[in-house]
Amino acid sequence: MGLRSTRIRGPLAGLVAALILGGGTGLVTGCGPRAGRITDVGATGGTRVEGGTATMALPPAATPNWIFPIGAPGYLATYNSSIQNLLYLPLYQPEKKGAELSLDSPRNLAEQPRYSDGNKTVTVTLKKGYRWSDGKPVTTRDVEFWFDLIKHNKAEWGGYSPKLLPDNIKRFQAIDERTFRLRLDRAYNPAWFTANQLLYFTPLPRHAWNPDDEDPKKVFARLTRHAKQLSAFATDPLWKTVNGPWKIRQWATSGQVALEPNARYSGPDKPHLDRVVFKPFTTADSEFNVLRSGGVDYGYIPPSVMAQSKKFQEMGYRVDPWEGWAITYLVLNFNHPTAGPLLRQTYLRQALQLLIDQRAISKVIWRGSADPTRGPVPASLLAKDPYPYDPAAAKRLLAAHGWKARDGGTLRCARPGTGGDACGKGIEEGQPLKLSLLSQSGSTESSNQMQEIKSSYDKAGITLDVRQQPLNTVLGTTVPCERTEPLCKAWELGFFGTAGSWYFPPDPSGEQLFATGAPSNMGNWSDPRTDELIKDTEYSGDPAAMRRYGEYVARKVPVLWTPNPAYQVSVIRNDLRGVDQNPTLSLAPQDWYFVKKGAGRK
Fold first, then answer.
1. Does pTM surpass 0.90?
2. Using alpha carbons only, how large is the chain's radius of gyration in Å?
3. Whole-number Å distance between alpha carbons of 193 and 19
4. Cβ atoms within 10 A of the Cβ of 492, count?
5. Which pLDDT belongs to residue 2?
6. Which of 135, 133, 136, 142 is nearest to 178 (CA)?
7. Is 367 exposed, middle or buried (0-12, 13-18, 19+ CB in 10 A)?
8. What is the pLDDT of residues 357-378, one digit of tens each?
9. Which residues contact residue 375 at a Cβ distance below 8 angstroms, ignoring those fewer than 6 apart?
10. For 315-400, where are the alpha helices, taking DSSP H only?
């Protein structure tokens, strides 16, 4: 599971700019399943029963390890935020409505925002009746508490992008207990601001976490210390004050999380189950074996066993691919002391991309459950793949810039320098074209994909050493770094995309991903033109702004695009209903319930 697809279809204009604000329905259109995939809409009928325990399998080698609803670098995996949002409600939650992604959900803690003053002021009103689990009301002071924490600790917040939230808010004004107003530093595209800025706002229990009105820096440091004590998540009184539909029953260091209903929850979607369990597995194969034995109610099958889907249907399960609003890639560490000078050469990145046979990998290794990634936005926003598989073109590019090999071995720089036919700045004569890749473990498909890429590179004279580690280790290592930091020497290329590398917010702009200094810009990509184009998507409601950004960054290759798989091919018990596979990977187990049915119930 990556940092944040249903494959997106539909006109570009409908995709980005169709967030209808000011009390209307906010929609991003086109989130439909990919053509030609197995899609079983699920069992119907039956009598609902209250209670029971549903067990959901987590992705391979994924272990939830962060509970504080302000994400920290290295802890940004989507399964962390998905669980956090069940305990601490954000103001807005995207959800599917037919073939669309809506920001007007009944689960929202706030009414739709109101924009005024030429889109330089935003007014938000909380819905009535929401309370914390200790009975205290949820108020604008709780929203302001969250805002003060990120404002005074933005360098430690994993969602911080320079000049955006909280920098772009000149003033937070609490009008009353339920209404607050934001004075912005300039006019913004309301669709973008709601989808990609207000979506972060999450009230936190000020009365429980900061009863003495301490300095925000001291409070943040204290909360972060608690958030790093994984073994105490289930017992720490700090995490027992929640406002979501669930509260913690168990949070094991192994990664297993069990939630039970919050009896004081006042939202419209109160849980039907007695308990929901999120169960970790080291590999997809181990999960598959437990699934076959009936050990999970909501699991997945690896693409390699798609042919066995009928067996699960015969056993009383339904098969339903869960596709995400995502892209997948290999991240490049431009600040690595030796690999950095190589990776900063545009021609070299182009050659590396030309050697990745995305279509063959999608078809053979992922068994058709993945599609090529074309660039930094959903594939439907790009007219074509700028660098389709072409080994001959890659070899010509490398040769034209002075790379030669002896006796078919590894390429070495034969023409150092900065001229148009030279290897490039910082590359020494005789330096080998050798790179290392830190890739997540636990997936046969990911392992085979990396070996296929390695083989393709070997044939072109590029040596690629592949090392595999658990997902949390990869995420904790492949973080933005300065060239002088020891951690910056620990990785050159990284992969955390077995279930997609990056899950977009509703508006798929790039301020979190490829803007200079962005929190999820793991490789430290920095390009003035990229920054300009991203700003255009933030300020303008013109759908063409997103296309211009996507096409330009796709050609620049700041990462290496790889096949984007479905998040998982889900296998769900026929008597477990209410499951909605949100393309943003949010979860709503409060809507799940069992029915009396011949398949039986745990």
1. no
2. 24
3. 10
4. 25
5. 53
6. 142
7. middle
8. 999 999 999 988 899 999 999 8
9. 327, 382, 386, 550, 551, 553, 554, 561
10. 339-343, 346-354, 358-360, 391-400
